[in-house]
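Supplementary Text 2. Reproducibility record for the structural model of the 627-residue chain.

All settings were left at their defaults, and a single model was retained for analysis rather than an ensemble. We include the record here because the model underlies the residue-level annotations in Supplementary Table 4.
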Amino acid sequence: MVNVSVSQSRRWSPNDLEIFQYPMCLISAISETNEKGEETKILLESQENAFDQIAKIDWPMVVVAVAGLYRTGKSYLMNRLAESSKGFALGDTIESKTKGIWAWCKIHPKMSNTVLLLLDTEGLGDVDKGDPSHDNKIFTLATLLSNCLVYNMKGAFDNDAVSKLTFVTEMASNIRFRGQSSEDNQSINLILPDFVLCLRDFSLKLIKDGKKITENDYLEQSLAEKKSKADQFNKPRACIRKYFSRRQCFAFPVPGDGEVLENLETLSFYQLSTRFKEVTNRFTSYIYKIPPKKLLASKPINGQMFVTLADQYVKAIKDGDVPDVDDAFTAVAKIENAKIEKEALDLFENEMKKVMLPVSESDLGKRYTSAQTKALDYVRQNVVNDFQAKCLFQAQRKMDAIWYEIKSTNEQKVREKCENTMQNLFVKYLEKSLENRDYETAGGHEIYKRDVEKAKDKYFSILKDFKENEILSTWYRFVESMTKPEEKIIEADKNISQKEKEAEQKQNQEKLDILWKQRQKAQEDESEKQMKYLEDHYKKLDKDRREQQAVDEEKYEAFLKDRLEKEAAQREVERYKLEQEAAEKEAARYRKEQDNAREEAARLKKEKEERQQQWMVTRVWNAFWNM
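Retained model, structure tokens:
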């Protein structure tokens, strides 16, 4: 299994990745032979180099895979989509050039910040292959990995061509989805790509019953059920209609004469026939409008998600199992959501690092809730198939843990700032006078109290950005530490009576008690306020979670409804076309009956005239003989 790191750098450049320069083997096909050198089995292997490079791509991806019989010009179509004359090997013999699946990445020519991932698959139907199941495996992988499957073939889409699409009839048996791996799986078309049929060297005129029809009309008429035919005729057609609800057809004429065909890889696109260029341009324009691949109703896949899907499917096939789409989606969601969770935590931490500690507890709380809301919004917008909000809960818990650490650090820094401020003010206003015993004189206590009040005013002025409950503790400890020096000053103040000294001490104690109660009350009020603020924040987060879950469910239901409506509309169009065909047949039958009736009337009229003429001749003849 390819080892893909969960944490990928979001900084990447197409110029740094070889897979943007030329095609690379994505999934190799390795042959096993018997003693006679005959191929008996083909093993599929993920190619780590290509996987590692694709995993670095962090843009949405439109994945286009081409499949079809070998030597039908599949690689040429991929090169045109890559806007290049070279790239995927075209080959000039009956030997199949592509083995396994090759990948080529291009910056999308029409969508910004989007990658076009082209997958060129090994040609199907090669008689030299010794593993009869290999074609099914290649076709299944191409179907599961892409959101647009281009099936390329030569000539008309007749019964012989349809009968060769045996792998389509076996599609449901080769894929497990929602616990089922059978033709009865009604949900399988939810995960299958757009189906684009490319008919190469098409020479038939698109005319039916004297009227011109479109390429899509031709495709739908070719896929229509014919009740007069056996199940062998109708089943592959029914499977294509059932599994690929979005279908498109392009009929390519021969690009030129034999010399053009032999040199197709080296010729300029403008040297090909006008009609071929026109169809090719319509084909590329259609493909360029296809949106990026998604996992059902989730966000578009990126390189990491694609690699996880591919690795899961290849591993299942290699182990002899049927690829389980649900398991693959779960694996993608697990890896992608772990990455999204980490990125959300990084976003949260980066936002919190912008806060220059220390700050007031309320300001820190506001910055915390703002950063957490932003990070959780990022999770909601990018999470994959997180219908139970597990990723959201985990991210929130980890953010809360980080928040408590930051909060604790901030409290420590606030204390240090308060203590440093108080120490500086002590030095400025009190230290020198205390050392010189300037307060130990008559009236010295009043002078001392005045200096303390100056220090207090300055202390609260410097720390005005903080709440009282955050800075009162340090002030209270300072006042408490000055009790003995103050008693000494009071004792030395001979002008104050013993009674006045006791009153002063009592007053000071009362002030300290009031200060302590104020501090406690401020802390309780602020704590209650913060609790209320956080409670409201968590209520909002919970409400946002429920709303997001509801939105996800609505998106998924809308996705299903849209698919069902499209299928119903397609069935209605097919029904209408069948009714039109029946009506046209009935009209033709009626016209034929009218023509027959007119012919019969003309014949009868002619016979009558002949009889009348004969009667006149007879009467004249009889009259002549009776004279």
